[in-house]
Write a structure and sequence with these properties.
Elements (H helix, E strand, L loop, with lengths): L2 E6 L2 H17 L4 E5 L2 H5 L3 E3 L11 H6 L1 H18 L3 E5 L2 H13 L8 E4 L22 E4 L13 E3 L12 H8 L9 E5 L4 H21 L4 E6 L15 E4 L3 H7 L2 E5 L3 H7 L4 E5 L3 H10 L7 H5 L7 E3 L5 H13 L1 H15 L8 H13 L8
Parallel strand pairs: 1-2, 1-4, 2-3, 4-5, 5-6, 6-7, 8-9, 8-11, 9-10, 11-12, 12-13
Helix pairs in contact: 1-14, 4-5, 6-8, 7-12, 12-13
Length: 384
């Protein structure tokens, strides 16, 4: 039975990996999968993770240095597993610095050099290090799957496919269902603030106090304000941090929360795409440790970090970065949005227009699975 080795190091990669595994299983029911992934990939079926994905889910130089022994050990554990399993292909998802090193190691190893490698979500060369696009070929990348159409010019030197974004084929949330389930006594007459501090441990520990304090400031002028957050899988150790001031919504209902929210305060990341898909007005923020900030300032080529702003010809979502990512700044901007329905309506309108770019003519699951099958030479007859 053919096996594909999949590596995803972040919760966002777990989402993409689950979609691709589901699509491949529809085409080739007897395919099996192994590697590194999260709960969604395991629920997609025929996948087992050789160690917890959270071992790779860290960002910032401080975290990398502190956990260097673990990263190195896990890196070589993956290499040994690929040597032993001899999979039909290696699918790496996001986490590009780690995955580029892994691809280079696999291609330079006589035991694994023949294994084709596909990278889903290439390095963000449009944000920094444009020349890094050229490093994909030396790193043994045989095909690139992209979620964003504006990346195509950077990867013309190699096999590349824009497969759209999975959010575009996901179900829309229902505000009415949210209120019926979580606030039947209020309904849509009560303003709802959604707090989204990110999914990485460092993000939650650093950003949650900022977002919670912002909500307290807002409640001084809007005592009726309802505050909610998402109880995401893998974040259980941090749930005690969540104050009883905030309603915790299961991740299975987050799309209903987004549809109902009057405003979201979010750590900049892929969640901005999810919010835009539901037309949710938002304010983005982010901060990194000083050493990381100095490096990023030297490398960044654009003026925005939010994906939704990068996608748009006319960036429209407020961003508060580094020293500006603090309760006072967020609250001032949030009050403008909460108090003015025209601002909210205009942001929702621009979100809808921007998101239309992410549809590739079919679902991410179908297109991604088709490209992977073709690249790896997997046919119905060759499986099993």
């Amino acid at each position: 039975m053919a096996c594909i080795f999949v590596v995803a190091g972040e919760p966002s990669g777990d989402i993409l990996g689950a979609e691709l595994i589901a699509g491949l299983r529809k085409r080739h029911p007897s395919l099996s999968f192994c590697g590194v992934g999260g709960p969604l990939m395991e629920m997609a079926g025929s996948f087992r993770s050789i160690f917890p994905m959270t071992d790779l889910s860290h960002m910032g130089f401080g975290a990398i240095i502190a956990r260097a022994p673990l990263f190195i050990r896990r890196f070589y554990e993956i290499v040994r597993s690929i040597e032993q399993m001899q999979p039909a292909g290696l699918l790496t998802i996001d986490s590009t610095d780690f995955c580029l090193r892994l691809g280079k190691k696999i291609k330079s190893n006589k035991k694994t050099s023949h294994i084709p490698r596909i990278q889903c979500v290439p390095p963000p060369v449009w944000a920094w290090r444009p020349k890094q696009a050229r490093t994909l070929v030396p790193a043994g990348t045989d095909h690139v799957l992209s979620l964003f159409p504006f990346e195509e010019p950077f990867f013309r030197h190699m096999p590349y496919s824009f497969v759209g974004h999975p959010i575009m084929s996901s179900p829309k949330g229902c505000a009415e269902l949210f209120w019926k389930t979580y606030g039947p006594q209020y309904g849509p007459t009560r303003p709802l603030l959604c707090l989204l501090p990110g999914s990485r441990p460092r993000e939650i520990k650093t950003f949650w106090p900022i977002l919670l304090e912002t909500s307290r400031i807002l409640r001084q002028q809007h005592p009726e304000l309802m505050v909610a957050t998402v109880r995401a899988p893998g974040t259980e150790p941090f749930w005690p941090l969540i104050s009883d001031e905030c309603l915790m919504i299961p991740s299975t209902d987050k799309h209903h929360l987004f549809a109902a929210a009057t405003l979201a305060l979010a750590a900049s990341g892929t969640v901005s795409i999810e919010l835009a898909y539901h037309g949710t007005p938002m304010i983005l923020g982010y901060k990194v440790p000083k050493p990381t900030e100095w490096l990023l300032r030297a490398l960044l080529t654009g003026n925005h970090v939010g994906l939704i702003n990068i996608l748009s010809d006319n960036p429209f979502v407020p961003e508060y970065l580094q020293g500006q990512f603090k309760p006072e700044c967020l609250a001032k901007s949030a009050l403008d949005v909460l108090n003015d329905p025209h601002i909210r309506a205009e942001q929702s309108k621009q979100s809808k227009a921007t998101m239309e770019q992410l549809w590739a003519g079919d679902s991410f699951q179908h297109l991604g699975a088709a490209v992977i099958s073709k690249t790896l030479g997997i046919t119905t007859d060759s499986v099993g």
